[in-house]
Amino acid sequence: MNALARLSARLPGWLHWLLALAVAATFVVASWSKIANPGDFALSIYRYRMLPLAVLHPFALFLPWLELIAGLALLWPRLRRGAALLAALMTLMFIVALTAALARGLDIECGCFGASGGHGVDLSLIGRDILLLAACLPLLLRPR
Amino acid sequence: MSGRLAAGGACSRTLAEAGLLVALTLVAAAASWALRPPRLPLAAERSVYEFERKQPLIGAEAALARYEAGSHLFVDTRAGLAADAPRIPGALAITSAGFADELAAVIDFIAPEDPIVLYGDGLQATAAVAGQLAARGYTQLSLLDGGLAAWRAAGGPLSDGGAP
Questions:
Q1: Which of A123, A128, B98, B100, by CA, is between 20 and 30 Å from A28?
Q2: Cβ contact (<8 Å) for A82 and B17?
Q3: Tens digits of per-residue pLDDT, B14-40?
Q4: Domain B46-153 maps to which CATH number in 3.40.50.150, 3.30.70.3270, 3.40.250.10, 3.40.50.300?
Q5: What distance in Å separates residue B113's CA from the closest CA in chain A?
Q6: Can you tell me the distance from the alpha carbon of A137 to that of B10, in angstroms, rounded to the nearest whole number?
Q7: CB-based contact, B139 to chain A, within 8 Å
Q8: Across the interface, which of B14, B18, B146 has its CB nearest the CB of A116?
Q9: How far are the Cα atoms of A43, B40, B52 from residue A58, in angstroms, in the given order?
């Protein structure tokens, strides 16, 4: 972890900003249609067969707003590390959900950027999320 | 020692920032839920989701093929529509809120064994009507994925001639 922190400290400022912008844009864009259609997003989450019905709707209402607010906060240096922590935790959760869905052979759409017409769950999505997680780490570990 | 203290301080500050953002999110999500109808009920309706588990969605191309073959009835589940709003020609209007009365009005045209395609603007409302129909013994139900927007994009006919 220390080596990663040292590496993050050595990243040029512009690259740091570029990473923050890319991660922020991903989360903000992903949040948009889910905020507009929480019912459809709830259906997407339900298809992963991971959440009990009792918490399904509150979770579907909460998560897109967390994506939006963490995404926007990444652009504000004072809050960037906290936002990067949340973004990394969300991405980790997505990776676990996608892996579990694949392992159980569920033929579902990911729901990553909204409910319908999305990308089917497959290995490329897990790869994409691992890249997203890798982009979050320098933002989280860079010394103040 | 001072390095460790500084690292500990940075760590707790990061956690505090994350906590602040989570608190902000709770306020924003609650405000959006309270102020922006239609509200998603906080408790999920079991029938909607259990129905969804059994009935696969169909894409607009498949729905169009069924429409052209004349093999299926179409049901429009959108609530609060104007009388001249575009629909799939021949579709029956049955919404979740007015379910019992609206089903009664068209009951001569829709039998439990009929194959039916349901569509709307969002899957939640469509799945809700499908769940209600399933509870009345309707068995051959499918949901149009992407709703009327997908139908329009696939070039499906509309009652207003397809004008946007």
A1: A123
A2: yes
A3: 999 999 999 999 999 999 999 987 788
A4: 3.40.250.10
A5: 26
A6: 15
A7: no
A8: B146
A9: 13, 9, 19
